[in-house]
Amino acid sequence: MTATQNSIAAAIALNRFGLGARPGELASVEKDPAGWLRQQLKGSPPVLSGEGLESSADTLAQVLALRKDAVEARQAKKQGDEEAARVAAALKLPAIYRPKYIAETHARFAHAVGTDRPFLERLTQFWTNHFAVSVDKIVVLGIAGAMEREAIRPNVTGHFVDLLVAVEKHPAMILYLDNQASVGPNSRAAGFLQRRGGGQGGGRKADINENLAREILELHTLGVDGGYTQADVTTFALAISGWSIGGEGPNRRLLRFGGGSGKPGEFHFRDVLHEPGAKELLGKRYADGGVKQGESILRDLAMRPETARHVCTKLARHFIADDPPGAAVERMTQAWLAHRGSLPKVYEALLSSPEAWSQPLAKFKTPVDYIYSAYRGLALPVNDKRRTLQSFEALGQRNLMPGSPAGWPDTSADWDGSSALLKRIAWSDALSQRMGDARNARELAPQLLGATLGEATTRAVARAESGAQALTLLLASPEFMRR
Amino acid sequence: MSDPLTRRRFLEASLFAGATSFACARLSFAAAPTEARFVFVLLRGALDGLSAVPPVGDPRYPALRGQIALPKSGADAALHLDSTFALHPSLKFMHERYAAKELAVLHAVATPYRERSHFDGQNLLESGGTRPHELQSGWLNRAIASLPKSGAGERGVALGANVPLAMRGPVEVASWSPTKIATLDDETLARITDLYARDPLLSRRLADALESDAIAKEAQAAANEGEDMAGEGVVERDAGQRRNFNARFTATARAAAGFLKRDEGPRVAMFDTTGWDTHANEGGAQGQLALRLRGLDASLAALMESLGDAWRHTVVMIATEFGRTAAINGTRGTDHGTGAAAFLLGGAVNGGRVLCDWPGLATSALYEGRDLRPTRDLRAVFKGILRDHLGVAGAALEHEVFPHSSSTPALEGLILQT
Q1: Sequential DSSP letters for B331-396
Q2: Cα–Cα distances in angstroms (integers) from residue B95 to residues A89, A111, A251, B30, B82, in the given order
Q3: Cα angle for residues A282, A283, A288 (degrees, 5° grid)
Q4: Degrees, nearest 5: CA angle A220-A223-A228
Q5: How many angstroms away from the CA of A166 is the closest CA of chain B?
Q6: How much is the average pLDDT of A247-271?
Q7: A193: closest chain B residue by CA
Q8: How far apart are CA A481 and CA A324, in angstroms?
Q9: Rounded distance, CA A289 to CA A301, Å?
Q10: Residue B350 distance to chain A (closest CA, Å)
């Protein structure tokens, strides 16, 4: 490679594959841009630390205790309104959840800004978004961050199947997609409920909830065109009926009827809720085996070519271009299939795709990545939790709140709206006003953008009437908006 | 600095004449050739049509819906429409409009989509195609594109930071959501405009943003005069989060009205909202869905109030990607279904009617034995509105706006004849 090519490659490594260059990094990365990225995948993944981070099990145990109180209060009243009790509990829920959400958001932000392994962090956040839980569903507000720490981070450089199983069994995912109380219609619990309600007309008919099963097939594995049917969704939902959370509830009478109640707040397979019998899915028969039945299905889904292609297409879109180049997707898919879903092999196929290095500035940054890159580029301290939350909110991408299990969208058209652009500029300007002359935009511009820095931006920054305005122009420049 | 007109004048007079004259050419809204306004409200997540518009007269309804079924009488009674249908008790404003013949209710409607993915379902609802991801632009944008041009051309506005698929396409539309730009001075903005001169996308976006911002500020000032109604009628015994959600929804509706009521403003607006995917604990007359519906009802009331005289020229269409299962599931909610409900609201609507060829809820009548069977293609409704209200020509409707829809003719009589 020529010096210029390497300089472009370094800017791509830092900005497209990373979270934005920090002052001084470019020169060292230029020696071997791809090698710098590969090196980040080695060694065990980082463990986030920070004040107020708790395990999802501990957090959920507190919530379950709260709910138990509400239920008991209701039973004491006898005539009490179930809805009122639930609402009373819901009102207290944010008091437990909100500080945890703030702590998680802050720790995640501080890590992204400070990490020396930004490519690994991008991959982590890609997977968190692939397996999205959204905190606008209040029941996951306090544990969505823990899901990333517990289920995703440890598996980012492992095999997809382990990542998949860890996520689908995580309490946040179970609760987000409503599987905790999904009941097989022929389970022991269903029979019990039917006998109790029999003849009175008010008996609740136990049945499955197919939400988790559907989204696993559609979003997490095969993809919507992956060749499954409604019957497959239903069968899969039956197979994972009983995948639930430990602790008492949702129905204590039911729990007394059979099986332990598990450890509060942890994944717990409730055999009494599970639909018995063998299941046939996508042409394969799965013998009855309790929790193993659902696990076997997940293991097979992870190895299917439809899954490989679906996920590799998303990865290529995330890192290369909105319309991902077919050759790169093919290379990654083949690596997946040849190495049984080994993620480092897939990442290697991505990094060794020439398409990934040929078009600088092909991607428009998401708001969150824009914020990270500004903080990294200006070497800003991360110490104001409120400001962190405000930044995410102001730019329209609240932490862990994509609003749907499909996660945040990943193309320019999803993020380059006129109002969105103005918000970025306004946010950058406010940041620049705070910094004033404490940063020198003229020196920073070539350090952050390297060979992608254009003449118009250089000129605009040089001619700015103040240090703050120069910073605004640098952050608002087309080269800094893109990667 | 806060006066948008000052900003615009500054831009025009700025030293960066090359860039700004380009920007200003785009900044002027067309003198609109029509009084007709259209608002598209998209409820993402699949609204439960059987709760929003419960078929209380269908003998199968109470058993299928169990504990979330809405009663015909009593304190929590659904609001009577006709012998078969009622409205959810949260939809009080909409019920009033029904009585005033300004609301038409549609039931058992669907796009051509027959699977159950939210994301593909929304893709078809917004793109107007027959297969997901077959079209890269939205039917509403293509409809705007086909309207008779005048000056710089017709435009629409999407209320949100980014433009949803239905409004993406050949015509540039504005997008708007509140931004605090108090610290940004005109001089810096002019320099950024100059910096973007050779970046067609960013320069277009910035010019649109500044124009929209100016309009929205005026609208907001007007809304503030009448004391913000945001959240009124939705304050309920619930965690604050949903209340805020409803308040934002109302504020969005008011902002939309601010754009539409201007003589030279856009004639088409769109906004969307999530939170309709009620898989568990959906609730009946009270609860999760009831609260969301109250928010919808309040925002539509705010829209009508804020539009003032323009309301009589307005059609609001409220639609969702598909319906939900006829029966409740094991977690007192409903799963993804097929046939849905939709609404046409506004002074220009030929309302006071339920437009529905009701297939019934007998098991044999259900689609795949589980969902309300769709008996009308939503595209027929869209086509009827676009043709009779906005004046989109028939040829454009068939070929550009809704390709492959010739077997689905526009529904007649949706709009009042003036």
Answers
A1: TSS--B-S-EEEEEESTTB--SEEE------SGGGSBTTTBPPP-EEHHHHHHHHHHHTS---HHH
A2: 33, 52, 38, 36, 12
A3: 90
A4: 110
A5: 23
A6: 72
A7: B330
A8: 20
A9: 17
A10: 35
Nearest CB partner across the interface for B336, out of A214, A394, A481: A214
Please give the backbone phi and psi of residue B393, each rounded to the nearest 5 degrees, phi first: -70, 150
Nearest Cα of chain B lies from the Cα of A364 at a distance, in angstroms, of 11
Does the beta-carbon distance from B183 to A417 stay under 8 Å?
no
Instruction: Write the pLDDT tens digit of every residue in B12-54.
Output: 333 333 333 333 333 333 344 578 999 999 999 999 999 999 9
Specify the 3-state DSSP secondary structure of B37. strand
Best to test chain B binding among A421, A452, A469, A472 (most B CBs inside 10 Å): A421
Token pair belonging to A362: 């092909």
Give chain A as a 3 state SS string.
Answer: CCHHHHHHHHHHHHHHCCCCCCCCHHHHHCCCHHHHHHHHCCCCCCCCCCCCCCCHHHHHHHHHHHHHHHHHHHHHHCCCCHHHHHHHHHHHHHHHHHHHHHHHHHHHHHHHHHCCCHHHHHHHHHHHHHCCCCCCCHHHCCCHHHHHHHHHHHHCCCEHHHHHHHHHCCHHHHHHCCCCCCCCCCCHHHHHHHHHHCCCCCCCCCCCCCHHHHHHHHHHCCCCCCCCCHHHHHHHHHHCCCEEECCCCCCHHHHHHCCCCCCCCCEEECHHHCCCCCEEECCEEECCCCHHHHHHHHHHHHHCHHHHHHHHHHHHHHHCCCCCCHHHHHHHHHHHHHCCCEHHHHHHHHHCCCHHHHCCCCCECCHHHHHHHHHHHCCCCCCCHHHHHHHHHHCCCCCCCCCCCCCCCCCHHHHCCHHHHHHHHHHHHHHHHHHHHHCCHHHHHHHHHHHHCCHHHHHHHHHCCCHHHHHHHHHHCHHHHEC
pLDDT of residue B16: 34
Of the candidates A93, A218, A426, the beta carbon closest to that of B239 is on A93
Nearest to A404 among B207, B274, B332 (CB): B274
* Structure tokens, B405: 């829809």
Judged by average pLDDT, the poorest of A104-113, B55-64, B176-185 is: B176-185
Tell if the CB–CB gap between B240 and A413 is shorter than 8 Å: no
Residues B270/B166, Cβ–Cβ less than 8 Å:
yes
Cα→Cα distances B162→A283, A422, B159, B175, B337, Å? 42, 11, 8, 6, 28
* A285-342 pLDDT, tens digit each: 999 989 999 999 999 999 999 999 999 999 999 999 999 999 999 999 999 999 999 9
Locus of tokens 């240090």? A467
Q: 10 Å Cβ neighbour count for B310?
A: 21
Closest-CA distance, B283 to chain A, in angstroms, reads 9
Rounded-to-integer distance, Cα A265 and Cα A363, Å: 40
Task: Supply the pLDDT for residue B229.
Answer: 39
In B, minimum Cα distance to A98 occurs at B241
Span A124-145, pLDDT tens digits: 999 999 999 999 888 899 999 9
Helix (H) or strand (E) run with residue B258 in it: helix B240-260
Name the token pair of A322.
């909105």
Look at residues B237, B69, B325 and name the one whose alpha carbon lies nearest to residue A91: B237
CB A449 within 8 A of CB A433: no
- Residues of chain A with Cβ-Cβ distance to B132 below 8 Å are 224
Among candidates B45, B280, B287 on the partner chain, residue whose Cβ is nearest the Cβ of A83: B287
Cα–Cα separations (whole angstroms), residue B150 to B171, B310, B396:
14, 20, 18
Whether the link from the prior residue into A250 is cis, omega within 30° of 0, is yes
CA–CA separation, B298 vs A342, rounded Å? 51
- CB A298, CB A335: distance < 8 Å: no
